[in-house]
Amino acid sequence: MGDGSSGPTMDLLRSEPMQLVQLIIPIESAFRTISYLGDLGLFQFNDLNAEKSPFQRTYAAQIKRCAEMARKLRFFKEQMRKAGLSPSTKSLRSGDIDLDYLEVTLGELESELIEINSNNEMLQHTYNELSEYKLVLQKAGELFHSAQSIVAAQQSELELYNTTEQSVERSLLLEQEITMDPSKQVNLGYISGLVAREKSMAFERILFRATRGNVFLKQSVLENAVIDPVLGDEVEKNVFVVFYSGERAKNKILKLCEGFGANRYPFTEDLNKQFQIISQVSGRLAELKTTIDVGLAHRSNLLQTIGFEFEHWNFLVKKEKSIYHILNMLNMDVTKKCLVAEGWCPVFAKDQIQNGLRRATLDSNSQIGAIFHVLQTKESPPTFFQTNKFTSAFQEIIDAYGVAKYQEVNPSVYTIVTFPFLFAIMFGDWGHGICLLLATLYLIIREKKLSSQKLGDIMEMAFSGRYVIMMMGIFSIYTGLIYNEFFSVPFELDAYTAGLVKVHDTYPFGLDPKWHGSRSELPFLNSMKMKMSILFGVAQMNLGIIMSYFNAKFFGDNINIWYQFVPQMIFLNSLFGYLSLLIIVKWCTGSQADLYHVMIYMFLSPTDDLDDNQLFIGQKFFQILLLLSALAAVPWMLFPRPFLLKKQHEERFQGQSYARLDGSDYPPEIEPHSVSHNHEEFEFSEVFVHQLIHTIEFVLGAVSNTASYLRLWALSLAHSELSSVFYDKVLLLAWGYNSIIARGIGLSVFIFATVGVLLVMETLSAFLHALRLHWVEFQNKFYVGDGYKFYPFSFASLGQDDE
């Protein structure tokens, strides 16, 4: 496995050897030490202050300070997002900035940006108000002008009428109008403004009811939406002018304007004053526009300056905060001059960690160096596998079931091959496999660009598993060639007939295309795929049991070897290993024996003659021997192991009872927290019940798991038949018409059905079934999966994590 100086083993079969380490660090070099260990990323710290709340820890003030700087950076990021800017990724991270200087800089920039935003909001509010005022002046002026034009037209008609008609009634009316008292004439007031168009009808209705119809409302629709000064959003509005009489009506109108959010603006009837006010407002708007543009340009420049350094600052603040968070996990010794750290690291990283400690001591000018001390513990270490971008996705599939126990056999080594192969058995079509392969090759070629982008949930999942899908595509092409299916169409790779005369005895590779379309195609494929599924299933289950042997051998557990591995191999292969042998013999000999009859009567009537179902000499005696071996394997699994475990526990406890009282090699202040001195009691009944359950589960599971592998046959058949239906009943049916439109529709339906059903739904279905076969049928034979991951303190993960 390698020693402390040989470097990482890069061995996926077993996790890296780990060791529990204690670091005693002088306070003056503690910050640099943690920083260098974070750069190295190979040390997982244990929290030695778990009983303390975050506010009771030593460096709570520093973390609060970093959190405040992080808040300011989030404020800058939000402002950049609103301005349509993004932080620059070209900023350099070479030189570290003093945190005090950074804190002052961030505070000054925040104050300046808040002031700019406040001034801009105030100017924008004034600009929006003046814009609305200008529109009110223009539209209300048009209303008054049109009303005056109507009055002038009516007066001209009246004068024309006076010159042509001299009636008594007209004379009386004219006399009455001339002699009317001027003091009795009513002077109308008016209020003008803007109201939201969606509220205009309700505004008019309630205004009429509140004043009992004693008002006159005139509205004019604005063609374009205007920015509301209060809301700051674009709103479609109408200009209104309300004519009223009396103070009571005026007060009601003002209250209704406030209730409906209508903005009121003054208006004068004098045309000269109107033009004068409009010119003043226009000039003021031009000045405000210039001022706002200058302010926005200054704000944009400031945000660009921030954006150039944002990633650097953000990384520094996160790094600083993470260092203080780790420092809060350390214990202060009694002298208040050293910090005591405890954690896990790989054995190969010992020299690298010690070099980091020495460098931190030199850089901080400390008189005392840090102490690296390996602790002895009974605690189970974390699990650490060195993976790359290819193997990491397969390792995630295993970790989703459960993290491997420390140094137990890792199934991902075999999953890299078996997972895509079992998928391909269900998905076998080399046309569909090429589609999968091309899609994943696109993701792999552009992985550098896509890895820096934010993808959707589904796309992110596909991108993270791109190498798994690539392997699935490659294996699907291989099995598709074996099945001889290209979008359900067979290809004749080699002409082996000349007319009716065979040139070769058998078809050279894969399935003979002559089976396609024949009456016996489905029975033949069913028989072949069903038997093939059993063969692969029994082979994979045997591999799982063999892995349990290597686990027991590695951990020195001879009881599991002799009383678990051996009887399990005997039981499984006495029944289903024998079935696999019969399948192979039948294929090789071309026998017509009924394997269902052989297996059923092997249990019901083991002594009866086989007659036509005999495949080889001595088969009857061999079957009786296998049956007795399978029956003997069940008590072999059940009874000896609990008694041997009890005996082993008693011997171990008897040996430990004579241990030295002062067996610990550590002083009290640096005693590892994980050491436990209590002996666990051995519950024989609990162990026996557990063994009984395990035995029953294996015996029944041998049958159910073998049957479960028949899903390979079922899904392969379903995929082939679906593909054939889409080809025959959609594409060929449409191609039978002479119409281009019909052919285009048929081709479109075929493409959408192939992509949607076969390349998406069927891919997901086959993926999930292959996942189940690995998790349940394969891994339950040997995989414990009760470990926990190794999470080292590393700055490399800071850029990927959000606050």
Walk me through the structure.
The protein has helices spanning 27-40, 60-82, 99-164, 168-178, 197-210, 247-259, 271-327, 350-363, 391-401, 412-427, 430-445, 447-451, 457-464, 466-483, 521-554, 558-589, 595-604, 619-638, 640-656, 684-708, 711-735, 740-778; strands spanning 18-26, 44-45, 189-196, 216-221, 226-227, 234-235, 237-244, 263-265, 331-332, 338-346, 371-375, 497-498, 501-502. Helix 15 runs antiparallel to helix 16, helix 15 packs antiparallel against helix 21 and helix 16 packs parallel to helix 20. It starts with 17 loop residues before the first strand and ends in a 25-residue tail after the last helix. The protein has 22 helices and 13 strands.
Strand content: 5-15%
Q: What is the CA-based Rg, rounded?
A: 43 Å
Number of distinct beta strands: 13
The percent range for helix content is 55-70%
User: Count of helical segments?
Assistant: 22
C-alpha termini separation: 38 Å
Query: What value does the average pLDDT take?
Result: 86
- Briefly note the structural class of the backbone: alpha+beta
Overall geometric form: flat
Low-confidence stretches: 1-6, 170-175, 657-678
Main β sheet profile: 5 strands, antiparallel
